[in-house]
């Protein structure tokens, strides 16, 4: 199954990052916007995940689809760039308003573009 197909399914996503001194952080994250099979984009706030990525560009994303069993994926990622404006960021903000609720879009200040460096099954 391609990443584009996988991320059309509802599920739970967790992004993990590490600070420059090795302190690990994990946070619940939405499904990404799939640009192609090696490029994914997430909306990000200014909190710990984003702060870690400004110092260490590597991250991991675990996605467990809501289907029975262990359908999903583990991804190794490397941050390519962030954008603080643009059409995609506006789309992400609108989605946050719709899914999370009023005011959620205002907290999203970055679109983080990632290169997928490894794809592994959940188990």
Overall geometry comes to globular
**Can you count the helices?**
4
Q: Mind describing the biggest β-sheet?
A: 7 strands, antiparallel
Give the amount of beta strand, in percent. 35-45%
Q: Roughly how much helix do the residues carry, as a percent range?
A: 10-25%
Calculate the terminal CA-CA distance, rounded to whole Å: 15 Å
CATH superfamily: Electron Transport, Fmn-binding Protein, Chain A
Broad structural category:
alpha+beta
The whole-number mean of residue pLDDT values reads 94
CATH architecture: Roll
The total beta strand count reads 7
The run of helices and strands is HEEEEHEEHHE
- Here the CATH topology equals Pnp Oxidase, Chain A
Keyword list:
single chain, 123 residues, alpha+beta, 7-stranded antiparallel beta sheet, 4 helices, 45% strand, globular
Structure explained in plain terms:
The protein is of the alpha+beta class and 123 residues long. The chain has one domain: Pnp Oxidase, Chain A (Roll), CATH 2.30.110.10. It has helices at 3-6, 48-55, 87-99, 104-107, and strands spanning 11-18, 24-29, 33-36, 39-44, 58-65, 72-83, 110-120. It has a 7-stranded antiparallel sheet with strand order 2-1-5-6-7-4-3. The longest helix is centred in the C-terminal third of the chain and has 13 residues, at 87-99. The chain is globular.
